[in-house]
Design goal:
The protein is α+β, with helices and mostly antiparallel strands. Helix content is about 15%, strand content about 10%. The protein has a two-stranded antiparallel sheet with strand order 1-2. It starts with 8 loop residues before the first strand and ends in a 27-residue tail after the last helix. Belongs to the DNA gyrase inhibitor YacG family.
Amino acid sequence: MSKSKEAPSLNCPTCKKPIEWSDKFPFKPFCSERCKLIDLGEWASEGHKIAGESIYDDVLSDELDPNKQRH
C-alpha cells in the first residue's frame, strides 16, 4: 500500500480556480490575497451570512425598546 504524497486540491471559494493545498498558495483556501480580500468584504457587507436568528440584540438597531424583556 503506497501513500500518495500529492497535495490535495480544491477550488478557490471566490473565483473557483483550482489550487492545491500547499505552500505554493499561502492564502489557502484562496488562490490569492485578492480573492481572500473579496471574501472578507462580502462578510463585512453581509453579502455572506450564516442562516438563523441572532441570539443577541443589535445595539445599533432603531428597534431597541428599553422596556423589552431581554433573554
